[in-house]
Amino acid sequence: MNGIRKKVLIVGVAIVAISAVVATQYARAELSYTYNINHPSNGFIRFVGGDNATDGIRVLRADGTNTTLQIDFGELTAGINKTYTAAFAIVNEENFSVDIKDVEVSTNSGADYLQIWLHGDPTAKAGGVFMWDKGSDATPADTTAWTLAAGNSDPSDMDGTSIATPWDGTAQVRYTEDTTAATSGTDDYVWVQISIDIPDTPDNFNLHTGTITFDFEATTH
Predict the structure, then answer these.
(1) What is the pTM of this model?
(2) What range does the domain containing 111 cover?
(3) 32 falls within a domain
(4) Residue 164: what are its φ and ψ, rounded to 5°?
(5) Which of 12, 35, 86, 111 is the most exposed place for a label (fewest CB within 10 A)?
(6) pLDDT tens track for 66-92
(7) How many domains does the chain have?
């Protein structure tokens, strides 16, 4: 009898195992998605022109006929410190606040002579929020340098609806010449000040190029 019971038990376990395999179900579902690729002056975090370079065109401009933005400081000389207090503005169009955490510069050709600040008043030299110093990160790690308040999803204005940002047909970017000062955590924009501090004996007298990267962070829920 013991032998028979063991056989029955084994068969019973086998039946349970087979039933579990048979009970496995499969399904397939589809979801559509959509997004739009905009000009950087019309994006959810967008860049707005301010100061003009030495050629009379805005420092912030589109690179040729494409929608890649570049910053062109123009023709400079050895021993000069050229400061653009309103090189460009960064504007938040999201419906939640966004923190600017860091700025980094990488060079493609030539030495790094850039100094970068975030500040509110485009007519005055920046004081407090020093971000980059000629090859060195000037911001403490894991801190918030500036908070952009929630925007209104409308690229034609900033600071709510208070400041118009029309289109510059020459630079191919949105711009503003409004001088209203911004406050971190209150307004949806900040001005970027850039100084080019060239020594009396620079590394070379050729073209200097590189990339400026901004790091953003937001909590959405």
Answers:
(1) 0.85
(2) 45-217
(3) no
(4) -75, 145
(5) 35
(6) 678 999 999 999 999 999 999 999 999
(7) 1
